[in-house]
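Q: Okay, next protein. This is Macro-like domain-containing protein from Serendipita indica. I've checked the sequence twice, so it should be correct. Can you predict the 3D structure?
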Amino acid sequence: MSDEISISFPSVPTTIVGESNMQQQHDSRPALEAQPHDPSPEESRIKPHFIFIEPKWSHETRETLIKAWNRAIARYYPNREAVSPFTVIEGRLGNIEPAQIQCDCMVSPANSYGIMDGGYDYVLSDVFRQPKTRDFWHISNHVQSYLQTQYRGYLPPGSCIIVPLPEDVSGPTRFVLDPEGRDQDADGNPGINYGNPWGATSMAVLPTMREPANVEWHQDLVYNCMWTLQVEIDKWNAALDDGDQKVIRKVLMTGLATGCGQVPAEKCASQMVLSVKHFNEPVLVQPRWSDVGERGQLIEDTIVGEGNPRTRYG
């Protein structure tokens, strides 16, 4: 709802018109100045940009997310003149030039317990090792401390929590001199690299399953996960000043539940992209079924659409 603008007019001199004296007097009111516009919450909202990555497969026996993402973006964002909120890049996290995937937040497609030792979570645990001790469980332990505090150790599938990265792996890579360090600067001085190559300062923990399992049966799991991710990003940003370095503007993530979860690439890609489109076109206030029918049909199409036959559980 837009704010009402109250305008006060100065008093206007009155001309008394007599029968014998028909004269006109110009309006002496000053020109009205444009009133400052107070942006609505939707106007001031930061709409994040999503960077999707997937490794290049050595064979084409399975549908790739890269192709599926690009198809979904073309389907739901047909206006080529509009700026797409997505970038799609083929490659592994460690092999892509860091400048291409600079981000503020990295997404862990986690399990409910924050045990980050498989699939893409394994990669995240490896790159976010404690810089000095090289502890593999550094990021898992950090995430689990937040799960304990806020969710009693269990984050239900489809939920999301955003946590700041540990200070020693947060933000752009920085070299600190240390006689016992294993790295070296340009002059050969020993030290340790802190931070990360992508400049990320936060991690979104987004479980698609309680524990590693096939979740192909779930009809709109990916859509719902993307929705809760965006809700938490909005909450995170709303609590910060716009100039804060930890505001989330770019999000780096892979597909959701396409590994051991076995969600088909087409279904995953369609629901990821559609969820972002719908989130940026919020549901009407006090909707009725007639207002949400089209949205519901678009979601349904991602479940039973071409390349997405219902499973025997659906």
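A: Here is a summary of the prediction. The first strand starts at residue 49 and ends at 54. The two ends are 40 Å apart (CA to CA).
Q: Noted. On to the next one.
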